[in-house]
Amino acid sequence: MNAPPDTSFNRAYVGTRHDIVALVPPSVRRVLDVGCATGALGRFLKERHGADVYGAEFDPAMAKEAESHLSKVWNVDLNRTGLDSLTHTDSYDLIVFGDVLEHLIDPWAILRQAAELLDKDGSIIASFPNIGHYTTLFHLLFMRRWPYRNRGIHDRTHLRFFTRKNLLDLYTQAGLRIVQEKRNLRLWESGSSVDFMAAILDFWPFRSFVTFQYVHRLQKV
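Now predict its structure.
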């Protein structure tokens, strides 16, 4: 019998991520979840699709819990060790980066490595916080400070920052293109009852200002 999940982890980094699940192709069979946390997403994909799911995770405690759900988990620091240095016996038809690449020194190199590990018709699903959200401008213009936080767009552990145009450049250099896009809309960092206003403002030129997060499914060009 598996031990109950550890609820002491930052809830921003655990959970199934239904916005990612919505973009998962139904035919996936071999998955690499980069930044798999406690393995919740991988376990869901195993149960729904019968997929063979592997994980890579920086946090040792999370990696240990994920091992009970996934086929194999590498406890690895991708700022020191590339994806291409791990032991892969086959390619993947899905690789997931759920709010991971912005935490890395060189996300450009890691995404190129992921593309090399991908099947010809496989997909990469990547989610990113949008630094072009209006709250960034608000804090810089009116508060005269960078809004360091413990989670979200301005998470203090982020090393890289992306707008949608930056993401297009990131994908292009890895030989990838967007085939599906989902935008998570939000007005406030923690969510609020007035977030419905973000949907009302979801048109040019306000669209990027109310997009809290981009989720993209990518394939090789």
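The mean pLDDT is 92.
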